[in-house]
Amino acid sequence: MILPYTKDDAPMRKARGIVRNLQQAGWYLPAGILLFLVFVYPVLRTLVLSFLHVNLESGFQPVFAGLSNFGRLVSDTRFYRSMQATLVFVSVSVLLEFVLGLALALALEQLKRSGRFFRTLLLIPWTLPTAIIAILWMWFFNDQYGAVNDLLLRLNVIEAPVAWLAQPRSAMAAIILADVWKAFPFVLIVLVAGIQAIPREMYEALEIDGGTYWHKFRYVTLPHLLPFIFVAVIFRIIQAFAVFDLVFVLTGGGPGGKTETISVYSYYTFLRYMDFGYGSALVLVLAGLLALIGWTLYTLLLRHYEPGR
Amino acid sequence: MLWIAAAFILSLRMPGANPEGALSVLMEPDGTGTWRMLIAQFEKENPDIPIQMVEGPPATNAREDLYAASFLSGKAGFDIVYCDVVWTAKFAAAGWLRDLTDRLSRQDLNDFLPQELEAGSYKGRVYRIPAFTDAGMLYYRKDLVESPPVTFDDLERQAQQLQNRNRWGFLWQGKQYEGLTTVFLEILWGFGGEWIDAKTKQVYLDSREAVKALEFLKKTIGTISPPAVTSYIEEDTRTLFQAGRAVFLRNWPYVWTLVRESPVKDKVAFVPMVHAPGESSAATLGGWGFAVSETSSRVEDAWKFVKFITGTEQMKVMYERMGRIPSRRNLVPAEFVPIIEKARMRPAIPEYAQASDILQRWVSAALTGRPGCEEALKKAAEETRALLGHAK
Questions:
Q1: Which sequence spans correspond to the domains of chain A?
Q2: Which residue, of B29, B63, B223, B371, has the greatest Cβ tally within 10 A?
Q3: Among B177, B354, B367, whose Cβ lies nearest the Cβ of A252?
């Protein structure tokens, strides 16, 4: 029997709607499963692990731990030290990357055709694997035959070779320098894209009103660039917080544990000490802190931002 | 998307993806080709047991982590474990190694160096069969040094006298890593001190001897050792020494083979590490052996290989081609006997990695910065006690 086509076909439409929704859901399914496997599941598992003792002592059998992993964290001086090292690394390197990236983005904008050439050239460090860059810098910083000492000696900046990786402060400086070299091109590229998206008329209008270069930067470039700055900086902060390969290769966390970042510490806790409960607690705290920083930065930079204003 | 999914699925199958039934083992990079040669020999004698050797990274702790990751993933990654002395306790405690005690013949038990056998044991059971042994020692330039030093004072004085603008007095490994632990222990033992008693779990790091040992090391920096010594590992010091840039070098036996093909080839000799008056020399025991993975489905075949590779003839080949000192008593070359006799074990405890990290961090901190030697060692002792008390 064929249903007559009447005005009152709401149930049918509803049914068709459900089918369509199901169909749409089906399209999302493969991506959803993949996302669940590589994102949701690990996060949940880390959360569960942080409330358990799973270590050599327990024979890797889960034993309920309550909040004791977090309690241990509160009194763990190594955790505070690694946090401190991480914060120093993140703040100094991201700041330098931002300043350098912004300055060069503005400079490249002044160049007409050669700008593209230099942009490509500057992007090269960003494309190289970090572990390889770390080994490269290890050679650069070698006290006997390293390029850094050679250059500084020739320029008469230093009198005797400096043992860069042998002292806590200079070792941290070396790690930061290597990171800035690798990562500032990322900031640069994001900001160049942002600058190019700014309508030229705005500058022309300002010129007619007699605005200086500073005025253009302050009242046109910077406000328009805010969302791009946010994206570049937040990406860099997240990546810098998780810095592992540079530290692991250049210093292993030394000398005296002064360059050990939180991700290096959690790596040791997981794979060398095989303490999965405590390692998970460490990672969770790191994730929480990152969320907090992201939210703070968002409120500071973007809450009042309205495009086109 | 599909590509990512495919890569993901493939990566699940990766560890131990060996060609039809080969036994797999993770080894160091086979620079000399000796391991390949020995394996080929084994396969010729046992055509039904192919061996797949995976050449891992040269850094020991990186391979330790790879083994740990493979065992933790649950599936049988490797059938045979090429195992450092300091992993044995941890791996055995984790239940990853098969108890091989009853498979050893009485002759083997007598033949292997006792300290190597002990280093391969955990709670009285043997898990790792020793293949070659290692011990720290003091190389010196015999064209410069008239009579080799015996005490710490001798070493310091001679180094001071013989060093010049182009040549440092004394090289050792001072980066914060396992090598620093081995160097510090030799000095500590040379002063008559002790680190951890593996049986009672007593910690002696805040003793007077320990402070003296650390003070000795700290004093060398910038006086007889280069300021960068706190960033050096074995190879940094070896290359400097081989280039004629130092009088004394603390290192392992492998240097002996290499130094004889270097610019200083006829000018080098070695003695056991120096010690304090009234005490005796000590060497940190290193060394590698083979173990059978608990998860392997072919224990008998794996044991056959372990027995083969730790055999007398194979050890001779390892010595000739790689300069590795055999771990069977009667095979140790005469010149190395005085060194090997002094070799002492690092504590065989499951928490070894943590304990060593605590020691490295505080020793390195005292060497490169503010905390005084006494304060640093007190902190290290406290942390170690907390660790061992906590993990009883």
A1: 10-49, 71-302
A2: B63
A3: B177
Whole-structure pTM value:
0.86
SS3 A111: coil
Half-sphere exposure of B345 (CA within 13 A, CB side): 25
Mind giving me the DSSP string for A16-45?
Answer: HHHHHHHHHHHHHHHHHHHHIIIIIHHHHH
**For the residues of B236-304, what is the DSSP string, one character each?**
HHHHHHHTT-EEEEEE-THHHHHHTTSTTGGGEEEEPPPB-TTS---EEEEEEEEEEBTT-S-HHHHHH
CB pairs under 8 A between A and B: 110
Q: Are B213 and B271 in contact (CB under 8 A)?
A: no
**HSE toward the beta carbon, residue A279, CA cutoff 13 A:** 19
Residue entry with tokens 């790596």: A267
- Token pair, residue B339, equals 């060194």
Q: Are B373 and B215 in contact (CB under 8 A)?
A: yes
The CB density around residue B21, as the number of other CB atoms within 10 Å, is 12
**B2-134+285-344 and B136-284+349-390, same CATH topology:** yes
Query: What CATH superfamily is the domain B136-284+349-390?
Result: Periplasmic binding protein-like II (3.40.190.10)
For chain B, the domains span 2-134+285-344, 136-284+349-390
The CATH fold of domain A71-302: MetI-like fold (1.10.3720)
Instruction: Measure the N-to-C terminal CA separation of chain B; round to a whole number of Å.
Output: 48
Q: List chain B pLDDT tens, one digit each, 392 residues.
A: 344 444 444 444 444 444 568 999 999 999 889 999 999 999 999 999 999 999 998 888 889 989 998 888 876 589 999 999 999 999 999 999 999 999 998 888 899 999 999 999 999 999 999 999 999 999 999 999 999 999 999 999 999 999 998 999 999 999 999 999 999 999 999 999 999 998 899 999 999 999 999 999 999 999 999 999 999 999 899 999 999 999 999 999 989 988 988 999 899 999 999 999 999 999 999 999 999 999 888 999 999 999 999 999 999 999 988 889 999 999 999 999 999 999 999 998 989 999 999 999 999 999 998 789 999 999 999 999 999 985 44
If interface means Cβ-Cβ distance under 8 Å, which residues of chain A face chain B?
A: 30-31, 34, 37-38, 56-57, 59-60, 78, 143-144, 161, 163-168, 171, 251-258, 268, 271-274
CB contact under 8 A, A168 and B5: no
List CB contacts (< 8 A) between A57 and chain B: 391
Which ipTM did the prediction report?
0.83
Partners of residue B69 in chain A, C-beta under 8 Å: 271
**Disruptive mutation site among A72, A172, A258, A269 for chain B (greatest number of B CBs within 10 Å):** A258
| CB-CB under 8 Å, B391 with A166 | no
Q: Give, for A127, the enclosing helix (H) or strand (E).
A: helix A114-127
A57 vs B1, B369, B391: nearest CB:
B391
Q: Closest approach of chain A CAs to the CA of B272, in angstroms?
A: 27
